[in-house]
Amino acid sequence: MKPKQQRRKPLKKFPEANTYFWQGNEACAEAALAVGCRFFAGYPITPASEIAEHLSKRLPQVGGITIQMEDELASIGAVVGASWTGNKAMTATSGPGFDLMQETIGWAFMTETPCVIVDAQRAGPSTGQATKCGQGDVMQSRWGTHGDYSAIVLSPNSVQEMFELTIRAFNLAEKYRTPVVLLADEVVAHMRERITVPSSERIEIINRKKPKSGEKAFFGLEEIPPMPSVGEGFNIAVTGSTHNEYGIRFTADPMVHRQLVERLNNKIQKHSEEIAEVETCNIDNCQIGVVSFGCTSRAIYEAAEIAESKGIRVGYVRLKTIWPFPEKAVRQLAETAEKIIVPEMNLGQIFYEVQRVANGLTEVIPLNKIGGGELITPEELFEKIQGSIKNE
Amino acid sequence: MSEFLKAVHELGLENLNNFVFCSGIGCSSWIPSPHFMADSVHTLHGRSIPVATGIKLLRPDLNVVVFGGDGDIVGIGLSHFIHAARRNMDILVIMVNNMVYGMTGGQVAPTTPFKARTTTTPYGSFEHPLDAAKLAVAAGACYVSRWTTAHANELKDSIKEALKIRGFRFVEAVSQCPTAFGRRVGLKDAGEMLKWFKENAVTVKQAENLNEEKLMGKIVVGEFVQKQRPTLAETIYKTIREAQKKVEKN
C-alpha cells in the first residue's frame, strides 16, 4: 500500500517559536532569514547546497534575493556588493569553493564589509571525498587570504547551533564590520535534529552603525567606523588598496598602511575575549582535559561519562568560536589538567594552537582521524583518555 | 573619462548622485575611483562585474557603471562578462582596451593583435585576439559598440546612447598605451597611435563586405547591436512580488 502523502503545511513568513526537526543547513538558512539577511549568492557544492536551495525558495517570500552565480569568485563578489547597499548578505560553500573565495574575503576584510561565509567542511585536500566530513579548513579559515588579517570563525556542533551561531555570525559581522566565517562541517550541515526556534522578540539582532549626514571618515578615526551605503549621497570610495580614513588610496606611505592594518587587526584582537565563546566543564578540577570543536566535540559528552564511571575526571573546552582562539579557557584547562587531548578530523591543526597556549604547562596529545567521513567515536576518545593515563 | 562625463552632461544630469561606479584593477580602473564625485567601489582584478551585480540587484534604482581594462573584463574576469550579458544584468560596462597589460609593464593580453611584440611575447604574440564586442552580442547584450580614442565624439555619443537604455550594455574604447605597447610595435607616441587607429578603423557596415583575411589587424568600429529585453532585476522583483503575495495569502 502506498503511504498517504502528507500535504506540506504552507510556509509562514518566519517560523513560529516551536520545536522542529530540521537539517543543519535548513536551520542555518532560517536563522539567516530571522536575523535579516536579504541576499544570498552561491554556487552549488556538496555539502552546502541545501542552504542555497532553501533560501532560493524562502528569500523571495520575505522580499530578498537568491542568485546562483557562475562561480564562487562571483558569489562572494556579489555578496560584498550587496552588503554595500546596506543589506545583510551571505554565501555558503565547502573547501574547494572556499579556496576560490579567499581573495575576496581579504578584500571584504580590507574594505570592512560585513558578510557571512558558511564553509561546510568536507574531506580534502582538493576534491578529496566530496560527500564525507572533514575538519581540515581550520587554518585556512584563519590564514586563507594573504596579508595580515584577523578572522572571526565560529564552529557549530549541532543543528541548534547552526541556527544560533548563524545569527551570531551576522551580529558579529555587523558589529565589527568584518566578514565572519561559520565553519560548519558535513555532519552538522546534513544531519537532522530537534531544534528549538525562539520567538522573534528573543532573537538579538545587531545592525551596523550608520553615519550621520556630513560624516566622511568611513575607514578610520574610530576603531569601528560607521558604514554608509551606496546611493545615499556620501560619495563613498571603497577600495582594497591601502587607504586613509576617507577611503583615499595611499599605496606608498608606510604610516597609512601601518595604521590601517593595525586598526583592522586590533578591532578584532582587542575584543577577542568578547568574541570567543566556549562551553566548558570541570576545567578547574580535572585529571584529563579535552579541547574540541564542531562535530568531533559531540563525542566528548559520552566519553567523559565513560571516563567518570572508571574514576577518571575529565574536563573539557568546546570551542564555539575558533578564531580568535579562546586562549583564556584553554589556558585555564592547561593549568589544571595533567594532559590535554585534542581530537580533530584532520592531521592536527587546533592541536598546535592548544600546544601554543599550554606553553609547556601540560602535555598536549593529538587524536586525529581522517577518511570516509568516519567520526571519532566516544569509545575512541575514551581509549585515548585512558591510554594517556597508563603512559605515565 | 572626459567622454563619459561629457555624455552625462549632455544628458542633462547635474551630478552623479544616482550613479555607482565599479572598477577592478588596472589603469582604467582608476578612472572613476576616486576622481568622480560619486560612490565608487574599487574591487579586485576581474571582479567588478559580480560586485556591480550585487549592488544593482538590491538597488535597481541606481545607475551602475563598470569601468575596466581588457585584462580585467575579458582576461581574468571573462566569465563574469559573459554571464552578466546572458542574464541581462542592467549595468553599463565600459572597457578601455589598450591591447596589453599596461599597469604591469606591457605583457601580452587576450586582446593583443596577432604577432604583436610585448614584454612576454618578444617573438610576437602566437595567439589571436578576442573580439569582446562580438562576444557580448552573442551572449545577449542589449547594446554593444566599439570606438577608439581617435573617435572621441562617436565614443561620447555612444556612451550617451548606452546610458539611455536598460539591460546589459557594453562600450569598448580602444585606447593607446604608447609607453607599454605603442613603442614596442613601432608606434613612437600617442599621436602615431591615434593615426594608426584612424587608418585601421573600419565601420561595422564596411566590415560586412570584408573577409577574415582582410579584417586582420583592422579595428571594427560602430554599433553592433541595440535591442530591448527584460532585465534580470525586473524579472526577479516580479517573482518576489508573486512569492510574497502567495505567502501572505496563507
Can you characterise this structure?
The complex is a heterodimer of chains A (392) and B (250). With 392 residues, chain A is α/β, with parallel strands linked by helices. Helices cover 37% and strands 22% of the residues of chain A. In chain A, the strands form three sheets. In chain A, strands 2, 3, 4, 5, 6, 7, 8 and 14 form an eight-stranded mixed beta sheet that branches. A five-stranded mixed beta sheet of chain A has the order 11-13-12-15-16, sandwiched between helices. In chain A, strands 1-9 form a two-stranded antiparallel ribbon. In chain A, helix 1 runs parallel beside helix 2 and helix 3 packs parallel to helix 4. The radius of gyration of chain A is 22 Å and the shape is globular. With 250 residues, chain B is of the alpha/beta class. Chain B has a single domain, classed as 3-Layer(aba) Sandwich (Rossmann fold), CATH 3.40.50. Helix content of chain B is 38%, strand content 20%. Chain B is built from ten helices and ten strands. In chain B, the strands form two sheets. An eight-stranded mixed beta sheet of chain B has the order 2-1-3-4-8-7-10-9, with helices on both faces. In chain B, helix 3 crosses helix 4. The radius of gyration of chain B is 19 Å and the shape is globular. The termini of chain B are far apart. Classes of the chains: A alpha/beta (392), B alpha/beta (250). Chains A and B meet through strand 2, helix 3, helix 4 and strand 10 of A and strand 2, helix 2, helix 4 and helix 10 of B.
